[in-house]
Write a structure and sequence with these properties.
By secondary structure, this protein is of the alpha+beta class. The protein has 6 helices and 4 strands, in the order ααααββααββ. Strand 3 and strand 4 form a beta hairpin. The two termini are 16 Å apart.
Length: 202
């Protein structure tokens, strides 16, 4: 099955679990993201739930980055990327085992992850080369980290880009046998070109 160039349709095909897109958080809520949970009432608004989950994921990521750097520096980070990508590839294979659909699935997962932080991102499939072009014009993760830095949150890395690129590249290589990955960085985002073996073949 060739992935669709209709981005929304392709993502709907690839993702097993679908959730409605939450409303964009307000500026006031965004500024409060690093000063504690936005509400202690019995109910949270959908934008508050989004910001809390973004914060929890960010806290967990920052914690293990700090721990690994303290224990072994960058070699420990590289070891973690190899272990993480291997575990993730095995988990992806349980959800989507069909090799002819793995390229579409792993790219959709990557795009959805960035969309969770309101990234301005799109993807395009080229059937002739069996490759995807992923354009991340405004990275929400970069934006989120900038908000954290302004709030005096301690960050392990000056930029998350190298870690993100290494981890997601290794996931694509191990799960979907990507044959070529090229990434160009920009001030606010990045451009990916990811090629896969024809028809999911080895």
């Amino acid at each position: 099955m060739d992935p669709s160039n209709d981005d929304n349709a392709a993502l709907a095909q690839a993702e097993t679990v679908r959730t409605p897109t939450p409303a964009a958080p307000s500026a006031a809520l965004a500024s409060a993201a690093f000063s504690g949970d936005p509400s202690h009432s019995a109910a949270l608004t959908d934008p508050e739930k989004v910001r809390i989950w973004q914060q929890r994921f960010f806290e967990a990521q920052a914690s293990f980055e700090e721990y690994l750097m303290a224990r072994g520096g960058m070699p420990a980070i590289h070891d973690w990327i190899e272990a993480n990508s291997a575990i993730t590839a095995r988990r992806f294979a349980l959800v989507e085992p069909a090799r002819e659909r793995r390229a579409d699935y792993t790219v959709a997962r990557f795009v959805n992850q960035l969309r969770c932080y309101d990234s301005d991102i799109s993807r395009r499939f080229d059937a002739a080369s069996n490759s995807f072009e992923i354009t991340n014009r405004d990275c929400g993760i970069l934006r989120y980290r900038q908000e954290a830095a302004r709030a005096q949150v301690r960050l392990t890395f000056e930029s998350p880009c190298e870690y993100c690129t290494r981890l997601n590249s290794r996931i694509m290589q191990k799960y979907a046998d990507s044959s070529s990955i090229e990434v160009d960085y920009a001030e606010r985002g990045c451009q990916w070109r990811v090629a896969f073996p024809a028809n999911g073949a080895d």
